[in-house]
Sequence to fold (98 residues):
Amino acid sequence: MGAPSITGLHHITAFCGDPRINHRFYTGLLGLRFVKRTVNFDDPGTYHLYYGDGAGSPGTILTFFPWVGVPPGRKGTGQAVAVAFRAGRRRWNGGRNA
Fold:
């Protein structure tokens, strides 16, 4: 039996501030589907917000822990500082539907 291979990611998680602004940006501006809201099981007082494609398919999911009022973080060694993904074929309208 060989070493297991990684064939993809289920989701990527990041932190955000105001969950309402986060929701408007990812659903209104980027056109992602709000898949679900759960709790952060490491911090049950915080939500875990899930966005993805129209079907909520694994590999399309971007999630957030909203921590309102927390100062912005600083870049650290080995930390991802940018995520890029395709959000679909919607025509850009300058963000007017956000």
Observations:
- The first helix runs from residue 19 to 29.
- The chain has a mean pLDDT of 82.
